Amino acid sequence: MSQTAAHIADDWNKGAIPGMKGPSRGFVAHVLVALLALFGLNWLVVTYVPFEIKMIGSSYLIFFYHFPGAINGALFYLGLFAFSVAYLRTKKPVWDRRARSAAAVGFLANMVLLVTGSTWAKAAWNAWWVWSDPRLMSAAVASLIFLGYLMLQSAVEEPARRRQISAVYGILAFVNIPVVHFSIQWFGQTSHPMKFDAMSAESIVHTRWYAVAAFLVLYSALYRWRYDRTTRNERVEEALNRIRRIEERTHA
């Protein structure tokens, strides 16, 4: 095996999580733990937290599925940023695969955030969407920015150039995350509340952070699945390219 081939094989053997080898082991157990964690979340929502609170009644219960989308989306976008920086520093394809996988899961969490937020707004304030709300609009812009990152993967065919452009895009895209977080402080409050005093109850605080952890287990399983799938696709693509090069030399 040539030195280049050895480096490629070593890169493919790296796992979704830095420091771990792939493909992912214990994936089924990971998914089962995620499902149990989500079952536990539903149990807490039914039995532990108040059924309703002042101002918005029982519609606030969707908050325990809305809030994890915001936190976990930001975490995976942070992963995209870190992995993109690592790729630009090392030029190792494994960091690009990790970045692409993190972006896909981050986009999913972002969409959960938007759908649950819109549903909650309709139940609480009788409006699916408020175009003047800075938090809603900045979150929507974030989803479009990261959708653009995913679309970029199929827009550039040459792998090295695609990785380079994607890494730069992933770093620049992260700038929007602080905008989402501080949007109300910076641009003012409309329909989106800064906070509810009733939401500071101990049971609600405990449950919302448990929800973040439960969904993080699920999203990390999806991240591992996406990474393994991306790795397999790249190996197949590399094998096909090798066959094409052999055929071209044969017919030359």
Question: TL;DR of this structure?
Answer:
This protein is mainly alpha-helical and 252 residues long. It has helices spanning 3-12, 27-47, 63-90, 93-125, 134-155, 159-173, 176-181, 183-187, 202-251. 75% of the residues lie in helices and 0% in strands.
Secondary-structure topology with pairs:
Layout: H1 3-12, H2 27-47, H3 63-90, H4 93-125, H5 134-155, H6 159-173, H7 176-181, H8 183-187, H9 202-251
Description:
With 252 residues, the protein is an all-alpha fold. The chain has one domain. Helices cover 75% and strands 0% of the residues. It is built from nine helices and no strands. The protein has helices at 3-12, 27-47, 63-90, 93-125, 134-155, 159-173, 176-181, 183-187, 202-251. Helix 4 crosses helix 9 and helix 5 (134-155) packs antiparallel against helix 6 (159-173). The longest helix has 50 residues, at 202-251. The protein is elongated, with a radius of gyration of 21 Å.
